[in-house]
């Protein structure tokens, strides 16, 4: 083992997923010498085990579902999916788990790379254990940014350590279709992987603890419509089902449920949440607790560390566990580091250049199921908890002319929350085929705090599904006019 001479940079970034890459890029663009440390593949979870491979699996599933709803086309797509071709496309979209292009990009923007496991070793100090067993010591003049993301959180189920369970990583990178797949959980990973693997030929059973329904953090109708779609596809959904014991015997996974029922499957996927990758980052050397989420201010600085040199962006700070939101944070964190390093003013006011305001006000998300779910801002339940006075406006998307053109027998629902005191939109949820492409208009509306009266002048093209915006506004205005009518004599 050899120890290299210490190296000094303006900024040290730990974690080279999309978030770390964006922090490094913005810091380097500000003229700061920057190094990024990564122990796995550059591009991180999103590129190889999450966003890219999962959507590559789901795209043919959803395209076929849409085509089957179009008269004159459904017979052309009546057969099964070409599993080999789908998995080959997934491999291509995951760059065959090779990060050469990412390395080339880092070189192009003049960011140094050190491969290995980076740990804090005191204020502004990072020690990197390389694959060769060497130790590289780094000092940051201005900032260390932790961008290590999350990993799958597994329950303490007896026998779990013996069954080799799937997590989201195995579910998105598997090279075969299991005959029977049990999925434990009812969140985004659970419903997306149920959609994909059922369509690819697996017999899928979902075991959902409690009776809150699927997608419990979204509007209730979202989970209900997704559950309907999954059941129609052949998925067996069991609510109130807790797994109390698992074992692998004769090549199959055998489960015991809390009610005494037994179930067997070829593979079992636990989609039961995420945990921060902070257990072995040396947090204790700077007064933090190993394994904890990192609490940050709106500029991304870890609040519990003095002198403001430690930042955390992306999933690891638990603000919004979404790649696009982490990249948004990263752009702001990189810019804030640059401004502070140069002694420039930091604009951390609401919606300022160095404030991650959208984390609490306008977080967009698409769930790629059949039907799709797209949401941004608050749900009605969240608005009530926050003390916001909102009016809930619902509309059946199937009544929109564009929906009739999109698919025969279209089923969908839209909800708009109008902030009564501010006259703006506080949240929007769409459920239905193709609604993911509606989401950015909703995100601009919520983030821009566009007055509802101004939205009347944003004319949707006919016939498109986006006409639902006009119908939501008409419904809202009709209610306002009804409230202004004098009482009957």
From TrEMBL:
The keyword Nucleotide-binding applies. InterPro entries: Class-I_Pyr_Nuc-Dis_Oxidored, FAD/NAD-bd_sf, FAD/NAD-binding_dom, FAD/NAD-linked_Rdtase_dimer_sf, Pyr_nuc-diS_OxRdtase, Pyr_nucl-diS_OxRdtase_dimer. Pfam families: Pyr_redox_2, Pyr_redox_dim. Its cofactor is FAD. Binds 1 FAD per subunit. One of its GO terms (molecular function) is dihydrolipoyl dehydrogenase (NADH) activity. Disulfide bonds join 46-51. GO terms for biological process: 2-oxoglutarate metabolic process. Residues 9-324 form the FAD/NAD(P)-binding domain. It comes from the Bacteria. Residues 363-469 form the Pyridine nucleotide-disulphide oxidoreductase dimerisation domain. Keywords: FAD, Flavoprotein, NAD, Nucleotide-binding. SUPFAM superfamilies: FAD/NAD(P)-binding domain, FAD/NAD-linked reductases, dimerisation (C-terminal) domain. FAD binds at residues 55, 118, 315. Belongs to the class-I pyridine nucleotide-disulfide oxidoreductase family. This is Dihydrolipoamide dehydrogenase. It comes from Micromonospora rhizosphaerae.
